[in-house]
Amino acid sequence: MKTDAPALPSTASSVLIAQLGRGLRPRIEQAIAPTGLRPRELLALQHLRERGPSAQQALADLLRVDPSNLVGVLNDLEDEGLIVRSRDRADRRRGIIELTDQGGRVLQELDRALHGIDDAVLSVLSERERATLNGLLARAVEAVAGPCSEQPEPGC
Fold first, then answer.
1. pLDDT digits (tens, 9 = 90+) for 57-109
2. Considering the domain boundaries, does residue 70 fall inside one?
3. Could you tell me the residue range of the domain that residue 126 belongs to?
4. Torsions phi, psi of 38, nearest 5?
5. 129 domain-assigned
6. How many domains, in total, are found in the chain?
7. What is the tens place of the pLDDT at every residue in 115-143?
8. Angle at 145 between CA 141 and CA 151, to 5 degrees
């Protein structure tokens, strides 16, 4: 009996996304190189811009790093004046990370370079297709973001 179920694509979306990521990584690294940032630091700064001050543990979960390794990332960002660290007034054991004005300015500069990469790589797509792709990828990222997406909390 024939079904009307759509045939699965020959290549899984996850594999295509991985291939795209491998091609984009060198371009992203080149774009952020003048700032001295690494991709992991860029992700942390973007998280802070989008979600506001965040718990240190939320950043460790997002970056998929051990909290002790996150300290080095945060030290570098703090030394550059891109973030500030403080203690949660309700729970002094909890570190809160916040983007500084300087960090926001660095991200604005990088936005132009990163959108340029999008323009080059995604030029085969229409503006509408690019917007759809961006929305779909954002939803997929939220789904794998970890505890922050499953149990939102202030500063997550």
1. 888 888 888 888 888 899 999 999 999 999 877 777 788 999 999 999 999 99
2. yes
3. 37-148
4. -105, 160
5. yes
6. 1
7. 999 999 999 999 999 999 999 998 988 88
8. 130
